[in-house]
Each structure stands twice: as structure tokens, then as C-alpha cells.
């Protein structure tokens, strides 16, 4: 087997199990020349899915493949379609190359947002290599096992984001595109894990039903299932300082581990 890619765009750990964990918003790097065009608050990359690669590192022990990008979603959002079609029509979202933060405040200084030509260049430079690697790993695992599951690991500030949702987001938000991206049997196993734990509240196909990657790459008839888990960041980190909380994370990792084992059952 060829060595897994390790580039300035993403890193890919190739595992042996029929499970690929994709963490498309873990990256926080913003090139200096781009950061110089942003408002000061955006230069911190506040809308990063902070530390999810640390949170999911244990999945290697389950044999999972893991793909992690280097760059911030502010450079390009890897979980958006390349034509920037809205995933949640009628609701506020951020775009392929976001011009607004999750708070609704601008990302860029006046007149510094990217034009169509720059967006197209970012898609080629950052978006396409990640997706080509996703496709390659999906097909490798499917060919090897006859089936595979793509697990989308995400996190978000769970409250005080009225631009995106009202009130408090549940701790765990499981998305299967309304049941279209995985088999009924897999969804039932995952829901059984959520019902059987007592530490977190949860929603299934609520505000976050699954983004572009979950919806686009799922092909249940071919043996490719996809699931998204959006975790409220209060459960494993400090949402203001972005500091990781290992003791909180350990409790959450136990539940995520049970979900991933249900995937492999």
C-alpha cells in the first residue's frame, strides 16, 4: 500500500477498519496575506471546530482512517458544495468562502472579501485536494470491505449564536440527512447508543442534519453510509478561551467511542 498523503492541505491516516473519520473544520491556519484582509476577531479563526482531531484521536485504535485539513474554514469551507448552493434554504448559514462569522459579524475588512475568481482559486488549491483524498479513501475501504461508513466529526459553540439558531443547541446532534445517508439499521444502532447514555442530551436530524460531505458521498446502495455528529463545544473545552478540557473530553470520548463501535458492529 502506498504511504498516506501528508501535505500542507491535509493529513490522512489510513486505517484498516471500514470507517473513515473526516474532520473538515478542524483546521485553523489562515495564511498571513489573507489574515491581513480580515477583521481582528476573524484572525483568531473563532468558528473552528476546535480540537476535534484530539477528541477523535482514539479512533485510530478502532482501526479508523482519519483525514484532517490544515486550513481554516475561512479560507474555504470543505463541507460546502463547490457551487456554494445553500444546504439549509431559508436559514442563515455561512458560505463556501465565508464573508460572515457565526455571530453574523463580517470576516473581512471593507472591500477585502474574495471575488468569484479568488473563490475559484481557493476551491482548486484547498477544497479539491481534500475531496479527492476523501473519494480515494472511501473507495479503498469500500473495495476492501464491501461497505464502509464515512463519519463526519464536527463541533460548534452550543449557545449564544442567534445568527444560526435560537437558544441552546443539544449536546450531541446526529445527522443522517433525514435517514437518507445511512441504513435504517445503522441509524437504529446509533440512536440506541444515544438513548442508553445519561450524560448528554441529543437530537437526531434536528438543526444539523448533515452537510455537503454527508449528503454528497453517501450511497447506501453501494455500501457507502455517512453520518454527521455535531458536538456542542461546552462538553470538552472552554468556549471563550478555546482551551481543551481533557477531563470533560474523556467522558465525551466514551460516548463517541460507543457510537463508532456501533458503526463497526
From TrEMBL:
Protein name: N-formylglutamate deformylase
Database matches in InterPro entries: HutG_amidohyd, N-FG_amidohydro
Residues in coiled coil: none
EC number from the UniProt entry: 3.5.1.68
Keywords tagged on the record: Hydrolase
Highest taxon in the source lineage: Bacteria
Pfam families reported in the protein's UniProt record: FGase
NCBIfam families per record: hutG_amidohyd
One GO molecular-function entry: N-formylglutamate deformylase activity
Biological classification of the source: Bacteria, Pseudomonadati, Pseudomonadota, Gammaproteobacteria, Lysobacterales
Gene: hutG
Amino acid at each position: 500500500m502506498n504511504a498516506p498523503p501528508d501535505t500542507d492541505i491535509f493529513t490522512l491516516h489510513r486505517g484498516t477498519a471500514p470507517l473513515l473519520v473526516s474532520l473538515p473544520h478542524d483546521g485553523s491556519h489562515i495564511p498571513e496575506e489573507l489574515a491581513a484582509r480580515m477583521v481582528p476577531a476573524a484572525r483568531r479563526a473563532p468558528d473552528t471546530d476546535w480540537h476535534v482531531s484530539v477528541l477523535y484521536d482514539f479512533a485510530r485504535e478502532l482501526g479508523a482512517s482519519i483525514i484532517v485539513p490544515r486550513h481554516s474554514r475561512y479560507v474555504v469551507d470543505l463541507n460546502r458544495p463547490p457551487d456554494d448552493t445553500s444546504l439549509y434554504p431559508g436559514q442563515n448559514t455561512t458560505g463556501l468562502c465565508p464573508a460572515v462569522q457565526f455571530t453574523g459579524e463580517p470576516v473581512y475588512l471593507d472591500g477585502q472579501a474574495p471575488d468569484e475568481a479568488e473563490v475559484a482559486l481557493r476551491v482548486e488549491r484547498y477544497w479539491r485536494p481534500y475531496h479527492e483524498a476523501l473519494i480515494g479513501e472511501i473507495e479503498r475501504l469500500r473495495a476492501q470491505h464491501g461497505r464502509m461508513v464515512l463519519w463526519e466529526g464536527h463541533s460548534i459553540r452550543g449557545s449564544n449564536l442567534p445568527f444560526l439558531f435560537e437558544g441552546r443547541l443539544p449536546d450531541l446532534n446526529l445527522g443522517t440527512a433525514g435517514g437518507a445517508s445511512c441504513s435504517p439499521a445503522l441509524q437504529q444502532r446509533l440512536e440506541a447508543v444515544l438513548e442508553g447514555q445519561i450524560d448528554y442530551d441529543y437530537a437526531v436530524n434536528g438543526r444539523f442534519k448533515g452537510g455537503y460531505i454527508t449528503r454528497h458521498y453517501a450511497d447506501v446502495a453501494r455500501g457507502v453510509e455517512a453520518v454527521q455528529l455535531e458536538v456542542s463545544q461546552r462538553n470538552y473545552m472552554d468556549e471563550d478561551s478555546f482551551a481543551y478540557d481533557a477531563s470533560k473530553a474523556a467522558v465525551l470520548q466514551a460516548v463517541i467511542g460507543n457510537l463508532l463501535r456501533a458503526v463497526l458492529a
